[in-house]
Amino acid sequence: MITRSKANIFKPKAYLLHKKVAKIPKHVTVFKALKDIGWRAAVQAEYSAMLDNGTWELQALPLSRKLVGCKWMFKVKRKPDDSVERLKARLVAKGYSHNAGCDFRETYSPVVRSSTIKTVLATTVEKKWTLRQIDINITFLDGELTEEIYMS
């Protein structure tokens, strides 16, 4: 078998030139985030969207059930020139505290196949369409759950 390296075919090395950009820490704790007006607005936007969608209802915890914890995740979304586009906050369940069969029955993570992306790009070029990228603020892909999950 002839590999690329045996045939002296190598990818050129790409070196990135680092520019000075706004100093925003990559890993932010919830305590630091709530002191910053930008992160606080991102948390409020996420929280408001969950309330508007009726994501949860408050209930007392039955004695036979266990709580699933949650945490805030923070991400800095950047533009192609590496400047800050926006700050993004997400409230996520702590997956390691779930019990199979009790807190959930199956797992599902929607992903796009690379062949789908290639097909969309090829069609766009062929039809001479313009292509834009959008970032959805908040999405709920699976509709309503049938299981009862108690989250603190």
Automatic annotation (TrEMBL):
Native organism: Hibiscus trionum
Keywords: Kinase, Transferase
Domain Reverse transcriptase Ty1/copia-type: 53-151
Record's protein name: Cysteine-rich RLK (RECEPTOR-like protein kinase) 8
InterPro entries: RVT_2 (IPR013103)
Keyword Kinase: yes
GO MF term list: kinase activity
One Pfam family linked to the record: RVT_2
